[in-house]
């Protein structure tokens, strides 16, 4: 089947976060919105049809998630990641972040430490501090735009008796790393040694690009099964984030029972009617669409690479191993983070995520979402080039 991912779909009037909050975030609604991590593509036809068919029933009361729900997850993880999951391992959650929050509440106490790898998705900070835990920043090592893990620091941080949880982004947002087997093995060894629970955010696991592969740590190293909660969702993959449906895979029964009890105590277990339908339709009928999507994303990433090489080679950029999020290094422009942000908004009228929102390590960086039709990405690049031509003195 052919999918027209070049189609520009107007999202005005849909209460889209990335459009309606531009005034609040950027001070103007005139910026081209290439920031929030949802895509400007229609969901797969299987999802659209399933939702339309169910909406036609006209009664939208409480529903359950039955065998069809868990079977679709099991089949998807088996076909896409060669991970043989049992139905009893699956716990529903309204989102990956709620899953991380549940784990932090259940497996740590007020004042305990939680490790995060920075720069990282901004809610990783607030979900720790707003739940009265301490952040330990395991800063990633950046070499010419490519990021690796500081394992010596990770060992030191994990060895602290107050360190209880490691909130792990795999693939990593925003730096686009799909972590390799040897990296995952070392993480597993450290966390097992020091009795640190791994909460692995694998929401971008279906979006590995350019021949890179996603490795599920819980499957790769069975010895970590009693130290890991794997959090997944169809939301980023199939552009259904607004339906708030995710799940956690927990093989160890003791950990799973505690997670389940805490989830129910927080009243996070119900979910919504359409989220379950979208998950099933995505996983049961979306594989072909996903293949087309990843090819399109790769073409967009290569478009960006060629544009930067030709027009602004001083901008640091490395092709992502995964995700549709690109991490630009503008430090050679010599602007402070605030001046960089101001220039992008006022001169270029382009809205990207400010690098410092991912941590102090993001100063001088901006994150761009390429999950949009090629014409919009091209327009965004031209706007960035306009900024460059006014501010760069090199």
Topology:
Layout: H1 17-20, H2 22-26, E1 32-33, H3 45-55, H4 67-81, E2 90-93, H5 96-107, E3 113-116, H6 123-129, E4 134-137, E5 141-143, E6 146-148, H7 151-158, E7 163-169, H8 181-193, E8 197-201, H9 217-220, E9 228-232, H10 235-238, E10 246-249, H11 253-265, H12 273-285, H13 287-311, E11 325-329, H14 337-348, E12 350-351, E13 353-354, E14 365-369, H15 374-391
Parallel strand pairs: 1-12, 3-4, 3-7, 7-8, 8-9
Antiparallel strand pairs: 2-10, 5-6, 9-10, 11-14, 13-14
Helix pairs in contact: 3-12, 4-12, 5-6, 5-11, 7-8, 13-15, 14-15
Keywords:
single chain, 394 residues, alpha/beta, Aspartate Aminotransferase, domain 1, Aspartate Aminotransferase, domain 2, 2 domains, seven-stranded mixed beta sheet, three-stranded antiparallel beta sheet, 15 helices, 14 strands, 42% helix, 14% strand
Q: Would you kindly provide a brief summary of this structure?
A:
It is built from 15 helices and 14 strands. With 394 residues, the protein is an alpha/beta fold.
Description:
- The protein is α/β, with parallel strands linked by helices and 394 residues long.
- The protein has two domains: 17-44 and 287-391, Aspartate Aminotransferase, domain 1 (Alpha-Beta Complex); 48-285, Aspartate Aminotransferase, domain 2 (3-Layer(aba) Sandwich).
- The chain contains 15 helices and 14 strands.
- It has helices at 17-20, 22-26, 45-55, 67-81, 96-107, 123-129, 151-158, 181-193, 217-220, 235-238, 253-265, 273-285, 287-311, 337-348, 374-391, and strands spanning 32-33, 90-93, 113-116, 134-137, 141-143, 146-148, 163-169, 197-201, 228-232, 246-249, 325-329, 350-351, 353-354, 365-369.
- The strands form four sheets. A seven-stranded mixed β-sheet has the order 2-10-9-8-7-3-4, with helices on both faces. Strands 11-14-13 form a three-stranded antiparallel β-sheet, with no helix packed on it.
- Helix 5 crosses helix 11.
- The longest helix has 25 residues, at 287-311.
- It is globular, with a radius of gyration of 21 Å.
- The N and C termini lie far apart (48 Å).
- The model has no long low-confidence stretch (mean pLDDT 97).
């Amino acid at each position: 089947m052919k999918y027209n991912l070049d189609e520009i779909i107007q999202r005005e009037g849909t209460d889209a976060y990335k459009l309606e909050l531009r005034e609040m975030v950027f001070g103007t609604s005139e910026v081209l919105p290439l920031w929030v991590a949802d895509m400007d593509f229609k969901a797969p036809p299987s999802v659209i049809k399933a939702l339309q068919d169910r909406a036609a029933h006209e009664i939208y009361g409480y529903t359950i998630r039955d065998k069809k729900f868990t079977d679709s997850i099991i089949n998807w993880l088996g076909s896409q990641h060669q991970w043989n999951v049992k139905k009893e391992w699956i716990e529903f959650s309204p989102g990956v972040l709620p899953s991380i929050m549940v784990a932090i509440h259940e497996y740590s106490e007020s004042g305990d430490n939680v490790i995060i790898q920075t720069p990282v998705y901004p809610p990783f900070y607030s979900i720790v501090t707003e739940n009265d835990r301490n952040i330990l920043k395991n800063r990633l090592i950046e070499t010419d735009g490519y990021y690796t893990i500081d394992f010596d620091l990770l060992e030191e941080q994990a060895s602290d008796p107050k360190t209880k949880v490691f909130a792990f982004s795999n693939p990593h947002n925003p730096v686009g790393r799909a972590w390799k087997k040897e990296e995952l093995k070392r993480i597993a060894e450290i966390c097992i040694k020091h009795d640190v629970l791994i909460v692995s955010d694998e929401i971008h696991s279906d979006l590995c690009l350019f021949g890179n592969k996603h490795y599920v740590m819980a499957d790769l190293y069975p010895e970590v099964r009693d130290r890991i909660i794997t959090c997944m969702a169809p939301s980023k993959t199939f552009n259904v984030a607004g339906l708030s449906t995710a799940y956690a895979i927990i093989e160890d029964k003791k950990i799973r029972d505690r997670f389940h009890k805490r989830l129910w105590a927080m009243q996070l277990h119900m979910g919504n009617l359409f989220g379950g339908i979208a998950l099933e339709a995505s996983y049961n009928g979306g594989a072909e669409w996903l293949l087309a999507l990843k090819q399109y994303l790769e073409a967009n990433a290569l478009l960006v690479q060629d544009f930067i090489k030709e027009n602004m080679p001083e901008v640091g950029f490395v092709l992502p191993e995964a995700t549709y999020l690109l991490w630009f290094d503008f430090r050679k422009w010599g602007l402070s983070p605030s001046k960089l942000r101001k220039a992008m908004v006022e001169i270029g009228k382009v809205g990207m995520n400010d690098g410092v929102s991912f941590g102090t390590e993001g100063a001088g960086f901006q994150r761009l979402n390429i999950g949009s039709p090629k014409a919009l990405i091209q327009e965004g690049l031209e706007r960035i080039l306009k900024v460059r031509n006014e501010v760069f003195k090199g």
